[in-house]
Each structure stands twice: as structure tokens, then as C-alpha cells.
Amino acid sequence: MLRSLLILAALLCECSLIAQTAPKITHLKGKFYFFWGYNRARYGKSDLHLYGENYDFTLNNVVARDRQTPFTADVYLNPSTLTIPQCNYGIGFYLNEHYHLSLSGDHMKYVMVTNQFVQINGKIADSDTPYDGVYTDEQIQLKPDFLTFEHTDGLNYINLELNRSDDLLPMLFHRSYKNIALELTEGVGLGCLLPKTNTKLLSKIRYDRYHIAGYGAALKVGLNMLFFKHLSIGLNLKAGYINMPDIRTTYSPNDRGSQHFTFLQDNLLIGWRF
């Protein structure tokens, strides 16, 4: 994951150099755009801290995966179910011919891998389960009767991004095209995390409601094909950091969790400029 972040940083530097030589796009200031698309995500390992009445422990280097919904027309082409898959959506505004702001939501899903072995430190007491005890650098298997942990509705990253776009076709072919453009886009963003966390911890009742849990930051780079000055189809790579110090885990408000991790996201987006 660290290598991926370094690669993305290098790409952003290279893209910045290319963008400085790219000809100017005209007539964009004041325009709006919206976009919709789907993502796949990869996550770095995380130390998961869970605490509440009679327990306080940390699980080290927890592995998690995303969970993209398999494609079916009933889900992906049905307006009432469009937000079930991992998706990205937002609206943007051009400040000038190159720079634009976007407000977007990245709906990812974070699923802890069950039955993995991790290191545990801390204590569990009076849980009426076999897991009561004091732990010091011990290995434990994350069985479903001990813990399932998911942000599956989802790991919602609400973010504001500053982006720059440049048409590469005039630079590559020494001429501009009326009805097509190939835009290089780089961006940096900040935002908050609004997860809906589904946790089954010991014998406790789960919570599973939206809750502002923390913040995130990300960089992105991508290519975007623009047709007839309005319709766009793009691919981008986004890498970032998420820190959630206040995760609701069970129905009791005293039960909380915290974690932080990196992520790498591949996005396929379609948009409309107006």
C-alpha cells in the first residue's frame, strides 16, 4: 500500500509537469458538472481498538477487503438500488479554465476478513463468552462468535476536492478537436467519514446506524474522455488515508472503536457538463 501511495505521488508530479505544457481549455469558467460511477477499493492493514464497559482491547494488523456487488440489471439499472454497489457520485464547479471544485461521496465497503489470526492486547471481562481474559501479545482467531466488523452501508467518505484538468490532445497531436477531448485530471481532497457500521461483538446488540466517525484525505489522478463538450467517461486512481477515532460498534453508547488505514481506489465514472 505504501508503494502504491508513492507511485501515485510520482504520477501526480509527472502529470503536473505535463499539464504545464498543455494548451488552455476555453469556455469552462462557471460551468457545472455531475458524475456517477463505481469503484473497487483496497485497504491497508489496521489496528482496531474496541472498548466499552468491562472490555478494552486492540487487534493488530487486521486485514479487510471491499465487497462490490456482482453486476445484475435489477441492481445496476434500477434507480431505487443504484447506491447498493460501491459507487462514487458528486457535483462540481469550474473556478476557471483549469481548476474546479467538486463535492462528492465515495461509497466504499470495508469488510474485516473473518477467521484470520491477529495479535490481541487488552482485557475482556464478564462477557459470558469463552473470550474473557487478559491478553498480552497473544494470537486470536477472529471467529464470527467473537467479532464480525464491517462498514458495508458503507464506508462513506464525503469529500471536497480541488482538481485541475488539461486537454492532452492538442499537445499530443498539435491541434484541437471540436467534439472530443482527452483530459488529464489531478486532485486533492479532504472530508469526513459517515459509516454505517455493522458490528457483532461478543454477545452485544449491534448498532448499524450512520455516525460521523472521523476524517480522511486523498490524492487522485485520472484520464477523462469528453464527447461533444458535455458527456464524459473517465478512469481515475485515488489513494488516501482514513482515520476514524469514534466508531459506534454496539447499541450501547459506551461501546466504541477506532482505527486508521490507507486505501487505494479504482474508479470508473460517467458525467455530464452543463
Description:
The structure is a single chain. The protein contains three helices and 14 strands. The longest helix has 20 residues, at 2-21. The protein has helices at 2-21, 73-76, 169-173; strands spanning 32-43, 46-52, 55-62, 64-65, 87-94, 99-112, 117-124, 133-141, 147-167, 180-193, 197-201, 214-227, 231-248, 256-273. It is elongated. By secondary structure, the chain is mainly beta. The protein has one domain. β2 (46-52) and β3 form a beta hairpin. The protein has an eight-stranded antiparallel barrel with strand order 1-5-6-9-10-12-13-14. 11% of the residues lie in helices and 58% in strands.
Sequence-ordered SSE layout with sheet pairings:
Layout (H helix, E strand, L loop, with lengths): L1 H20 L10 E12 L2 E7 L2 E8 L1 E2 L7 H4 L10 E8 L4 E14 L4 E8 L8 E9 L5 E21 L1 H5 L6 E14 L3 E5 L12 E14 L3 E18 L7 E18 L1
Antiparallel strand pairs: 1-5, 1-14, 2-3, 2-14, 3-7, 4-6, 5-6, 6-9, 7-8, 9-10, 9-11, 10-12, 12-13, 13-14
